[in-house]
């Protein structure tokens, strides 16, 4: 059996994966502390040229692949996205879209029954601060993205209309 360092494994992945997958891999390796900040610079330098544009979107605050895929999708659709946005009384929201819609990306592994009430309490507190909130699960990100974008466009439009 062959074993390689996390650095070498991520470098190999970057040569094989599609653009957003490669970005998600790199951000996850950074978040999980499989690679260091120094490694990150070396990996970006060694990455294939076809990844230059997507790797310019690297976000040290990304905590999951779901966040990466959603964030890139929102950016590609023209939204402004701020990650790990702090809301008093609620903590950090995965993303704030156009300054008015909070997005939480929930994987079943981390958001099971024991997280139900804390997650709803967080949503309530975010809404109390005037930020519309939407929770996205895997199918919303990977299977029905067009509908997800339509929903976020509507939420942003409604929030902006209410503010004017």
Features:
single chain, alpha+beta, 164 residues, 53% helix, 4 strands, Endonuclease, Chain A, 2 domains
What would you note in describing this structure?
The chain is α+β, with helices and mostly antiparallel strands and 164 residues long. It has two domains: 1-58, no CATH class; 60-164, Endonuclease, Chain A. Helices cover 53% and strands 16% of the residues. The chain has eight helices and four strands. The chain has helices spanning 6-16, 19-31, 37-46, 52-55, 65-76, 116-128, 138-142, 145-163; strands spanning 81-87, 91-97, 101-106, 132-137. Strands 1-2-3-4 form a four-stranded mixed beta sheet, with helices on both faces. A hairpin with a 3-residue loop joins strand 2 and strand 3 (101-106). Helix 1 (6-16) packs antiparallel against helix 2 (19-31) and helix 2 crosses helix 5.
């Amino acid at each position: 059996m062959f074993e390689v360092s996390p650095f070498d494994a991520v470098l190999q992945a970057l040569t094989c994966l599609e653009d957003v997958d490669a970005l998600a891999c790199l951000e996850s390796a950074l978040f999980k502390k499989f690679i260091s900040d120094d490694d990150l610079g070396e990996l970006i330098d060694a990455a294939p040229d076809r990844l230059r544009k997507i790797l310019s979107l690297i976000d040290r605050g990304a905590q999951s692949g779901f966040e990466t895929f959603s964030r890139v999708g929102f950016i590609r659709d023209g939204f402004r996205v701020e990650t790990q946005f702090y809301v008093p009384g609620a903590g950090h929201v995965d993303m704030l879209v156009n300054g008015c819609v909070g997005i939480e990306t929930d994987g079943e592994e981390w958001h099971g029954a024991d997280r139900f009430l804390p997650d709803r309490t967080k949503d309530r507190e975010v809404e109390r601060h005037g930020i519309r909130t939407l929770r996205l699960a895997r199918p919303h990100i990977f299977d029905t993205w067009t509908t997800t974008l339509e929903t976020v466009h509507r939420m942003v439009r409604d929030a902006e209309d209410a503010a004017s």
